[in-house]
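A quick aside before the break. I want you to see a complete sequence-to-structure record at least once, exactly as it would be stored in a machine-readable document. Don't worry about memorizing anything.
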Amino acid sequence: MARMADEPRRARDVTKERHRKALIAATADAILEHGLANVSVSRILEHAGLSRGMVNLHFGSKANLLVEVVRHFSEAYGAHWQAAMAAAGPRPEDRLRALIAADFDAAVLNRRMMAVWTAFRGEAQTSPAYMPFIDSRDARLQAAFTAICTELAAAGPYPSVDPTLATMAFLAVLEGLWSDFHLYPDRFDRDAARAVVLHMARAFFPRHFA
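That is the input. The structure line, written in tokens, reads:
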């Protein structure tokens, strides 16, 4: 009897989670199509194919939904590069190559992701709740790069390489290339972008990126 009583609850939970995901996806689609400033609840629901009241039911308000949208994309990006780095194995040069390749993967670098990323960045100064999810100096990514650069500098050895400064250089170049994609998505060359960052890796760590 207890199992039978749990089934409707599980079904409700599944439906609730499906609706939450649909609203997050629909909001991203609406941002891509209309821009963040022009995203209304009506447009979100139109994209989601859900009835009125769903935004308040599942998120409490449109403002809360927007925070969940930027959180969702930030977590997806983080999970993507962490999985790529974990699959690369223990060698720091392989982990660095994996991080670079992951950053230009179409799974994260695409028009939809970029529309969300840039839209929320434009509002971050007036909406501080977005800042933890759009910060180019994300602590986890920065720590990953710093650890790799520290290992490589010691292994070289490369006494002239400051791992912290090398990390900031990598992040700045990646940031710039993402901006290039935002401005010229139809002309953006992912292979060329990877080659740019690997060229910098060779300059810092020549024996590992010959």
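Two observations worth writing down. The CA atoms of residues 9 and 15 lie 10 Å apart. DSSP finds ten helices and no strands in the chain. We'll return to this after the break.
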